[in-house]
Amino acid sequence: MKFKFDHDCWTCLRPSGTEPKLKFYFGVKGETKEQAEERLVALKDEVLKRVNAKV
């Protein structure tokens, strides 16, 4: 599954083909390297926070 967000940011979730686990991929863009790194940290934190949330 691929999820697209503002500022051309995205995350992709897929099952491993050889192991019983899920893999996450993240993509971001920014005006500068620093901005892209900030967006990557924020995106990863938010996605993983939601994945690890208790229902």
TrEMBL record:
Which domain of life, per UniProt?
Answer: Bacteria
User: Which parts of the chain span the membrane according to its record?
Assistant: none
Identify the residues that the record assigns to the Alpha-D-phosphohexomutase C-terminal domain, covering every copy: 5-37
Matches recorded under Pfam families = PGM_PMM_IV
This one is known as Phosphomannomutase
